């Protein structure tokens, strides 16, 4: 189908502002600009209580934000890894999404503020995400959560990191994850799928922007490593069930859908849902895009089914 009219209007408004594209900015400038898009996400009527903490990491403490919805029950836990090309994004940029997931599942959500590139290049982000996931598993009871009902979730670069965390957890004997939510994940850092060419320009995330993110994050010779690109993992069996959300006009569309196909071929229950007319980053825009609200509903429903299997 054609590009959604609301998306087109938003892109036209952004173009009219005349701001330089992200690949012409310094990382600190791009991070400042990213904060403005946080206003495109809405908050639930009864938001979850939040607590900011710092947990041990491989290179110092890692900031996390813990979301606790009102409940008398022991809740499942979702470790959330934000997107932003490993260079931008943080806890604040994805606060609304985490609020929505916490209240709709319901679950305790732990959002991880992992180290960013270029100051901290590959594999720093993954190491932080693994350390935070292990900490959550070890401290689940103190958080009011159930370590036997844990999921990992993330969008874009966070989807990449979530898939990699799931692989590491399987290979290293835990923590045991019940589900993985991957929203337009980067699974192939060599950018080899056709959608990279089909959607290279004009849809927010461009080929120039992807090159900018990758060059800041990882050397070209490392991009095919299975601990950087989950698509190249030799074996994807034994992983937790997955929901993979993609957008029609997204360069990352094909690699996310291909990863879902690989999971299914290996016997892993995996659903791939493509949102027609949408672009990369739409999941964070439910204030202006009804499809974003639908995608959040789908994500929350899938997490609820996996983490509340008895309807609790």
How would you describe this structure to a colleague?
The protein has 312 residues and is of the alpha/beta class. The chain has helices at 5-16, 27-34, 95-104, 124-138, 140-143, 157-171, 195-198, 207-217, 253-265, 290-307, and strands at 49-55, 62-68, 75-81, 108-112, 145-155, 179-183, 242-249, 270-279. The protein has an eight-stranded mixed β-sheet, sandwiched between helices. Strand 7 (242-249), helix 9 (253-265) and strand 8 (270-279) form a beta-alpha-beta unit. The radius of gyration is 18 Å and the shape is globular. The relative contact order is 0.15. The mean pLDDT is 96.
Can you give me a brief rundown of this structure?
The protein is of the alpha/beta class and 312 residues long. It has helices at 5-16, 27-34, 95-104, 124-138, 140-143, 157-171, 195-198, 207-217, 253-265, 290-307, and strands spanning 49-55, 62-68, 75-81, 108-112, 145-155, 179-183, 242-249, 270-279.
List keywords for this structure.
single chain; 312 residues; alpha/beta; Rossmann fold; eight-stranded mixed β-sheet; 10 helices; 8 strands
């Amino acid at each position: 189908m054609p590009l959604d009219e609301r998306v087109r209007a938003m892109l036209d408004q952004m173009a009219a502002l005349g701001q330089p594209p992200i690949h012409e900015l310094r990382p600190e400038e791009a991070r400042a600009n990213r904060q403005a898009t946080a206003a495109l996400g809405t908050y639930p009527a009864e938001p979850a209580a939040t607590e900011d903490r710092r947990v041990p990491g491989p290179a110092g403490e890692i900031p996390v934000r813990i979301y606790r919805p009102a409940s008398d029950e022991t809740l499942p836990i979702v470790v959330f890894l934000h997107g932003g090309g490993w260079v931008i994004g943080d806890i604040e940029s994805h606060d609304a999404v985490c609020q929505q997931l916490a209240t709709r599942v319901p679950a305790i959500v732990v959002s991880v503020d992992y180290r960013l590139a270029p100051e901290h290049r590959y594999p720093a982000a993954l190491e932080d995400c693994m350390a935070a996931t292990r900490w959550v598993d070890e401290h689940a009871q103190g958080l009011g959560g159930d370590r036997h009902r844990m999921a990992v979730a993330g969008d874009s670069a966070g989807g990449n990191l979530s898939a990699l965390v799931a692989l590491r957890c399987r290979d290293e004997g835990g923590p045991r994850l019940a589900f993985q939510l991957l929203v337009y994940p980067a699974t192939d850092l060599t950018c080899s799928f056709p959608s990279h060419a089909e959607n290279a320009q004009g849809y927010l995330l461009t080929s120039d922007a992807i090159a900018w993110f990758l060059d800041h994050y990882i050397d070209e010779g490392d991009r095919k490593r299975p601990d950087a690109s989950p698509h190249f993992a030799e074996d994807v069996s034994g992983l937790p069930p997955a929901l993979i959300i993609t957008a029609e006009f997204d360069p990352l569309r094909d690699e996310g859908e291909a990863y879902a196909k690989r999971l299914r071929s290996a016997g892993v229950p995996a659903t791939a849902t493509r949102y027609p007319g949408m672009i990369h980053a739409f999941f964070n825009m439910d204030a202006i895009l009804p499809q974003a609200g639908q995608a959040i509903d789908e994500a929350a429903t899938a997490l609820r089914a996996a983490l509340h299997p008895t309807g609790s």
